[in-house]
Design brief:
Blueprint lengths: L10 H4 L4 H12 L4 H5 L3 E6 L11 H14 L3 E6 L16 H14 L4 E6 L4 H12 L3 E5 L6 E3 L7 E3 L1 H13 L5 H12 L10 H16 L3 H6 L8 H7 L8 H21 L1 H8 L7
Parallel strand pairs: 1-2, 1-3, 3-4
Antiparallel strand pairs: 5-6
Helix pairs in contact: 5-6, 7-8, 9-12, 9-13
């Protein structure tokens, strides 16, 4: 449903003719913005889980700047809002303790501030569901922008061909070799830099988290509605929710066909969860106890 500027919730803050409306507009202009920036544009929040101590999210500050430019070009007014950063690799005893806190923080940030839509910047198996749950609770137009996968590096062991290595995939394997004496102390130290040259830090036993984050990111993309509806001009590129919404007969809605399409839409997600259920549960509880 297309809304006019008068219908946006941010008007409650900026369009009021009372003293509070005056104060809101005056404070915005104190920051160097124009009155028109908040009166003639929808306000788009950018929830950013960036942190210097979260390797999975360390690049999100730069990505937020790119998103701001995109929002401005699209006619919106972007405001970046920091949220709790939950990088499993550094948080003790586990980020699982804080996932729901993040969901509540995102919900209350959006509820308490003049926001009409939101872009979520998150990337791991805790920040992905945490930010999405908070945005869903607020029922605002939402785009989820995943942080992306970690890059691998190359490792050359004497007498063996060069191979790609990743922090999450190979840490346990190299640890077992180190424990067995197949890798010496100097080589172990060198491996730290090889596994972390592009990801900054070794992420022990990350496979469960990677599976979980991947499935959650897939669900977000598979169920995408707003972005698919507004940017995809070709009918062949529509996501399933958009296709089902736009599908109708000449004189009536074909409910049996729509119901069948809904079942088909659920199948890939159900299959993924069934195949990787053990890894998903492991990812959500990863790091239950750290030293």
């Amino acid at each position: 449903m297309v809304r006019s500027l008068a219908d946006l919730r941010s008007r409650r803050w900026f369009a009021a003719g009372d003293m509070r409306g005056f104060a809101h507009r005056q404070r915005i202009q104190q920051m160097g913005l124009r009155r028109e920036d908040v009166l003639e544009r929808p306000i788009v929040a950018i929830i950013n889980t960036w942190s210097d101590l979260s390797p999975c999210h360390a690049h999100l500050r730069e990505r937020a700047e790119a998103i701001k430019r995109g929002v401005l070009l699209a006619g919106g007014m972007p405001f970046e809002l920091p949220a709790m950063s939950l990088g499993e690799v550094m948080v003790k005893p586990t980020t699982m303790l804080y996932r729901n806190f993040l969901a509540m923080e995102v919900e209350e940030l959006l509820r308490s501030l003049p926001v009409d839509g939101v872009v979520l910047l998150a990337g791991c198996d805790k920040t992905t569901p945490g930010t999405v749950m908070g945005a869903i609770s607020m029922d605002l137009p939402t785009l989820f922008c995943p942080a992306g996968g970690m890059l691998s590096d190359r490792y050359l062991k004497p007498g063996e061909p060069s191979r790609a290595v990743g922090a999450g995939t190979h840490t346990r394997m190299f640890w077992d070799e180190y424990q067995a004496g197949a890798i010496g102390a100097e080589e172990w130290i060198r491996l730290e830099s090889r596994l972390g040259a592009l990801v900054k830090v070794v992420l022990p036993l990350a496979a469960p988290g990677l599976f979980t984050a991947g499935i959650l990111a897939f669900v977000n993309a598979w169920d995408e509605f707003l972005l698919a509806l507004s940017l995809n001009a070709s009918a062949s590129m529509r996501t399933v929710p958009v296709g089902i919404t736009l599908y109708q007969g000449e004189f009536a809605f074909p409910w049996p066909i729509i119901s069948a399409a809904l079942v088909v839409a659920i199948v890939p997600v159900a299959v993924l969860v069934a195949l990787f259920q053990e890894r998903v549960v492991g990812g959500l509880t990863q790091g239950g106890l750290k030293g």
